[in-house]
From TrEMBL:
The keyword Cell membrane does not apply. This is histidine kinase. Signal peptide: none annotated. Its EC number is 2.7.13.3. It catalyses: ATP + protein L-histidine = ADP + protein N-phospho-L-histidine. Residues 212-277 form the Signal transduction histidine kinase subgroup 3 dimerisation and phosphoacceptor domain. It comes from Geodermatophilus obscurus. PANTHER family: NITRATE/NITRITE SENSOR PROTEIN NARX-RELATED, NITRATE_NITRITE SENSOR PROTEIN NARQ. The chain crosses the membrane at residues 43-62, 74-92, 98-124, 131-149, 161-180. It is an enzyme of class 2 (transferase). GO terms for cellular component: membrane. InterPro entries: HATPase_C_sf, Sensor_HK_TwoCompSys, Sig_transdc_His_kin_sub3_dim/P. Keywords: ATP-binding, Kinase, Membrane, Nucleotide-binding, Phosphoprotein, Transferase, Transmembrane, Transmembrane helix, Two-component regulatory system.
Length: 420
C-alpha cells in the first residue's frame, strides 16, 4: 500500500506529554512527594481492597462468635472496632503508606480481624517506598507477629507451622510489592526513553529539512544570479544607449522582460527558505537538470546498479530547469536507496509527461532476494529531503510498497510553476 505525502502546512506537532506522568506513577516518586489524584484504575483497586479486607474482618468475627466457647464481649468489640477501623484507614494508604502500615500493625498486632488490612498496607509500602523503608516496616510487622504468637494461642495447627506460614506470607507480600515497584520503574524508564527518542527524531528531521532547504537555496542562488545579471546588463544598455535603433531597444526590453519573469518563477520556489551557509563559501558547480539524467543512470550502472530507464518525454532538455532539477534529485535519491537497501535487484526508472499534463517520475524496485518487503524505516531523512523539494515545487509525492511487492517512489510535478 502506497503512502501519500502532501506538502506540509507547518512544522511537526509535538506529541502531548503529560508532565504528571511520573507523579502519577508512585514507583518513581521520592518518599516525601504526595501522589497525584486517583486514576480510575486506582479507584477500582482501592474499592476491591476495601471490600476484601472488610469481608475478611466480618468473616473472622463470624468465625469467632460461632466457636463453642466464644471470646469475651470486650475482645469481640475490640476486634470489630480495630478490624473495621483498619479497613477504613486503607483509603489513605496511597498518601501516607508508612504511617498507615505502622498504625494498623501496631493497633491490630494482637487481634485477628485486621490481618488482611495489615498485609495490604505492607504491600503498599513495598510498592511505593524504597527498600530501606520497606525493611523497617517489615521488621515492625515481624515484631508484631512475634508478639501475637507469644500472647495468643493458636488452635488447629502446631505453633512452628503457624509461625512458618506467617513469615512466608510476609515475605511473599513484600516480594510481590517490590516486584511491582521494579516493574513500574522499568516502564517509567522505557517511557522516558521513548519520549527522548521522539524528541531526538524531531530534531533530526528539522535538521534534515534545514539542510535540504539550504542546498535548494544555494542552487537557486546561482540561477537567480545569472538571471539578474542579464537583466542588469540589458537595462544598463537601455540607459546608456537611448538613441539605439528601435529594434535593438525592443530586443533588449524583451530580454529584460523574459529574464525578470524567469527570475520570479525561480524565486517562487525558494520563498521562505533561508540560506545558512557561511560567508565566503566557494561557489558550487552548475546544478543538474533532467537532461543530465541519462548520464546519472549510466554512472550508476557502471557502479554496479542494475537500472532500466524509460524516457517518455520528447526532449529531456526541454523540461524547465527548476522542474528538471527536482526530478533529477528525486531519481538520484531513489536509486541511492535502492543501492543501499535492495542490492542486486533491478530498478526501473520511468519519466513521462509534457507541458499539458506535467512531469511524472516513478522509480520502483522489488524486495531484496530471499526476503519479504521490510517495514519502512522511521529514522531516515532521505525521503524528507525529497518531500521538501517536491513540496516547494508544488508537486505530490507517493512512496510505499505496492500489492505486487515492489517499493515505489512516484512524484508528480507541474511542468512549469506559475509566476507568483
Amino acid at each position: 500500500m502506497s503512502t501519500v505525502t502532501r506538502a506540509p502546512s507547518g512544522g511537526l506537532e509535538d506529541p502531548a506529554v503529560d508532565p504528571a506522568l511520573l507523579l502519577a506513577d508512585p514507583a518513581g516518586a521520592p518518599d516525601d512527594v504526595p501522589r497525584a489524584r486517583r486514576s480510575p484504575r486506582d479507584w477500582i483497586v482501592d474499592v476491591v481492597s476495601f471490600v476484601a479486607t472488610v469481608a475478611f474482618a466480618v468473616g473472622t468475627l463470624g468465625e469467632m462468635t460461632s466457636r463453642p466457647v466464644p471470646p469475651p464481649d470486650p475482645l469481640l468489640l475490640a476486634e470489630l472496632v480495630v478490624g473495621l477501623g483498619s479497613c477504613v484507614a486503607l483509603w489513605w494508604r496511597r498518601r501516607w503508606p508508612v504511617a498507615v502500615a505502622v498504625g494498623v500493625t501496631t493497633v491490630g498486632a494482637l487481634l485477628d480481624a485486621g490481618g488482611a488490612a495489615i498485609l495490604v498496607a505492607l504491600f503498599t509500602v513495598a510498592v511505593h517506598r524504597r527498600w530501606p523503608t520497606v525493611v523497617a516496616v517489615t521488621a515492625v510487622n515481624a515484631a508484631a507477629f512475634a508478639a501475637y504468637v507469644a500472647v495468643r494461642t493458636v488452635d488447629g495447627m502446631p505453633e512452628p507451622v503457624f509461625v512458618s506460614l506467617g513469615l512466608a506470607l510476609l515475605a511473599a507480600v513484600v516480594s510481590w510489592g517490590m516486584f511491582v515497584r521494579a516493574r513500574r520503574q522499568l516502564l517509567a524508564s522505557l517511557r522516558e526513553r521513548a519520549v527522548r527518542a521522539e524528541a531526538e527524531q524531531r530534531l533530526r528531521v528539522e535538521q534534515a529539512r534545514h539542510l535540504e532547504r539550504s542546498r535548494i537555496a544555494r542552487e537557486m542562488h546561482d540561477v537567480l544570479a545569472h538571471r539578474l545579471s542579464l537583466l542588469s546588463m540589458h537595462a544598463g544598455a537601455l540607459e546608456f544607449r537611448p538613441d539605439a535603433p528601435a529594434a535593438e531597444v525592443a530586443r533588449a526590453a524583451g530580454v529584460v522582460r523574459a529574464s525578470a519573469r524567469q527570475a520570479l518563477v525561480d524565486l517562487r520556489g525558494v520563498i521562505g527558505v533561508l540560506r545558512d551557509g557561511a560567508d565566503g563559501e566557494a561557489p558550487e558547480r552548475p546544478q543538474p537538470t533532467l537532461g543530465d539524467l541519462p548520464a546519472l543512470v549510466e554512472e550508476l550502472r557502471q557502479a554496479g546498479l542494475r537500472v532500466q530507464a524509460e524516457y517518455r518525454v520528447a526532449d529531456l532538455g526541454s523540461v524547465p530547469a527548476g522542474t528538471g532539477r527536482t526530478a533529477y534529485r528525486v531519481v538520484q535519491e531513489a536509486l541511492t536507496n535502492v543501492r543501499r537497501h535492495a542490492p542486486g535487484t533491478v530498478a526501473t526508472v520511468a519519466v513521462t509527461g509534457g507541458p499539458a499534463q506535467g512531469l511524472t517520475v516513478e522509480v520502483r524496485n522489488p524486495a531484496p532476494a530471499g526476503g519479504t518487503p521490510p517495514a519502512l524505516p522511521s529514522g531516515g531523512t532521505g525521503l524528507i529531503g525529497v518531500l521538501e523539494r517536491v513540496s516547494l515545487a508544488g508537486g505530490r509525492l507517493e512512496h510505499g510498497w505496492t500489492p505486487t511487492g515492489d517499493f515505489r517512489v512516484r512524484v508528480e510535478l507541474p511542468w512549469s510553476p506559475a509566476t507568483a
